[in-house]
Amino acid sequence: MEYKEIMANQTFYSKNNQNIFDICIQTYGDLNNMYKLIQDSNFESLSKTPVIGTPFIFDNSLISNYAFYNQINGNGQIINTNTVVENTVFGEEDLQTIFISEDGSTEFTFEN
Questions:
Q1: How far is 3 from 37, CA to CA, in rounded Å?
Q2: Is the entire prediction scored with pTM above 0.85?
Q3: Distance (Å, rounded) from C-alpha 75 to C-alpha 88?
Q4: What separation in angstroms does the CA of 38 have from each of 19, 47, 110?
Q5: What is the number of alpha carbons within 13 Å of residue 12 lying toward its C-beta?
Q6: Is 24 in contact with 34 (CB distance < 8 Å)?
Q7: CA distances from 93 to 24, 31, 73, 82 (A)
Q8: Which of 5-9, 23-27, 76-80 has the lowest mean pLDDT?
């Protein structure tokens, strides 16, 4: 049997109008690994807005919800709470919050 090393670290490049919180949700699925994301990526601070294309290193073994991660990233959707752009999820002007079950099969909608 051949042994293959699994790469845990991946790189995500920031998109237009994403802040560090958006990027943490985009990569890890929650904000629990915010400090790790900042530290691993040598990002300056929570108050800085990343320039488009800033590389962020994240440990894919720490993704909290793979169904959510795969649905968002597999469809090319971008977590962006600063403004609403094409393929944006959780936009500031969006009046709905979408919750996805762990298996990705059911969507629940909560209207504000």
A1: 29
A2: no
A3: 11
A4: 12, 12, 31
A5: 28
A6: yes
A7: 20, 21, 21, 9
A8: 5-9
